[in-house]
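Chain A, query sequence.
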Amino acid sequence: MVAVLVGLVSAAAYAGPSEDLFRRGKKKFARASFRGSIKLLQRAAAATSEPAILGRIHFYLGCSHLELGEARAAREDFSKALVHAPEMKLKGGRFKTRIRTYFDWVREGHFGAASFNAAPESVEVHLDGRPLGSTPLKDLAVSPGMHRVEFKREGRSQWTSRWSVGPGQQDRFTANRGEGKDAALSVEQVLVRKGKVCSVDGWCWQSPLPQAMI
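Chain A, predicted structure.
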């Protein structure tokens, strides 16, 4: 799978050790060896300070992370790619729809956000099975789609729910536990800001997004 990126300089502009690592990393990506691609691309990034190639390197790093289901890492690398190459755009049809859509969301700032609080004791917050940390957590960026939120205390699940997120949407979760060691945890979810209309591949949704958006 070879991609064409519009508006980027030719290979001659970044000849050097990083070029070879970058090409090898792209080949690993094309062969669906995503972990191998990440290792080579990270070495390529460390070997250059040229913005044009750094943009391409971080783009492919983002693609590899996304293929591995590591959405947060993908968002961070796509963001870095756009810092180094702000004019970067994908030529239609050369990447999976999921990659194109996610990259465009990063480029256009189409993310939701959430804050998590708890009283009287802190709780551990997990999103889609991954730990985010302990409360309070403020304004965490979340990719559009359907997510699973879980609150834990001392490793034990206290509350879980499905959460639909749209671009620009902002939610606040507040957990409260009643008196007594075995008191149940109650959670208030407040939609602080409604998201904007999201258009993907000709379809439009007003956030929160439906299950079909996943």
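The helical segments are 17-30, 34-46, 51-67, 71-84, 97-108. The two ends are 23 Å apart (CA to CA).
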